[in-house]
From TrEMBL:
<protein>
    <recommendedName>
        <fullName>Peptidoglycan-associated lipoprotein</fullName>
    </recommendedName>
</protein>
<dbReference type="GO" id="GO:0051301">
    <property type="term" value="P:cell division"/>
</dbReference>
<comment type="function">
    <text>Part of the Tol-Pal system, which plays a role in outer membrane invagination during cell division and is important for maintaining outer membrane integrity.</text>
</comment>
<feature type="domain" description="OmpA-like">
    <location>
        <begin position="68"/>
        <end position="185"/>
    </location>
</feature>
<dbReference type="InterPro" id="IPR014169">
    <property type="entry name" value="Pal_lipo_C"/>
</dbReference>
<dbReference type="InterPro" id="IPR006690">
    <property type="entry name" value="OMPA-like_CS"/>
</dbReference>
<dbReference type="InterPro" id="IPR036737">
    <property type="entry name" value="OmpA-like_sf"/>
</dbReference>
<keyword id="KW-0998">Cell outer membrane</keyword>
<comment type="similarity">
    <text>Belongs to the Pal lipoprotein family.</text>
</comment>
<dbReference type="InterPro" id="IPR039001">
    <property type="entry name" value="Pal"/>
</dbReference>
<dbReference type="InterPro" id="IPR006665">
    <property type="entry name" value="OmpA-like"/>
</dbReference>
<keyword id="KW-0472">Membrane</keyword>
<dbReference type="InterPro" id="IPR050330">
    <property type="entry name" value="Bact_OuterMem_StrucFunc"/>
</dbReference>
<keyword id="KW-0449">Lipoprotein</keyword>
<feature type="signal peptide">
    <location>
        <begin position="1"/>
        <end position="24"/>
    </location>
</feature>
<dbReference type="Pfam" id="PF00691">
    <property type="entry name" value="OmpA"/>
</dbReference>
<keyword id="KW-0131">Cell cycle</keyword>
Length: 189
């Protein structure tokens, strides 16, 4: 009986830890009914999963909803937050409004909103804070007319810093929500 407990406890602990992690697997195929170019796929042999996804997305890129006035904001795919905050800044609101306009004009576009925090605080607290940040962005976009079906809010907490430093400059970069187009991104040419 003790041998069974010794086996089950690590398995349960691992399962509990993994449930806190975002476990999304992006698709790397294109539905020809949703692709304005009519292509059904792109050769992604030898590419990493992220590179393959980006290659697929470029096939269905759209200029619909892209204006000269909002190109710079659409190019920005990250919004930042103050310490322990989910409040959006005025600059971030302009960025999100541009993405909302694009998403409303392109019903086939899909976006993952990934929430991140700095390294301070417990893992559990940061997972929840990352989720609140992603949900704040999602809420703004939905309020601006974007269909909730186009959005996915995910938290990575402090697990995926973009700056490995341990100072305020690093923490400021890591407190963010990334806007990741998974289908039909803006064509900014």
């Amino acid at each position: 009986m003790n041998a069974v407990k010794l086996f089950i406890l690590p398995v349960l602990a691992t399962a509990l830890i993994m449930t806190g992690c975002a476990n999304r697997k992006p698709t790397t195929t294109v539905d020809p009914t949703q692709n304005p170019n009519g292509s059904s796929s792109v050769n992604t042999d030898g590419l990493s999963e992220d590179a393959a996804l980006n290659a697929q997305n470029l096939v269905g890129a759209s200029s619909k909803g892209v204006t000269e006035a909002n190109k710079a904001f659409l190019a920005k795919r990250v919004v930042h937050f103050d310490y322990d905050s989910t409040e959006l800044s005025n600059t971030d609101l302009q960025t999100l409004q541009a993405h909302a306009q694009f998403l409303v004009a392109n019903a086939n576009s899909r976006v993952a909103l990934t929430g991140h925090t700095d390294e301070r605080g417990t893992r559990e607290y940061n997972m929840a804070l990352g989720e609140r940040r992603a949900k704040a962005v999602e809420s703004f976009l939905v309020t601006s007319g974007v269909s909730a079906n186009q959005l996915e809010a995910v938290s990575y907490g402090k697990e995926m810093p973009i700056n490995a430093g341990h100072d305020e400059n690093a923490w400021k970069e890591n407190r963010r929500v990334e806007i990741n187009y998974e289908a039909v991104p803006p064509l900014l040419k």
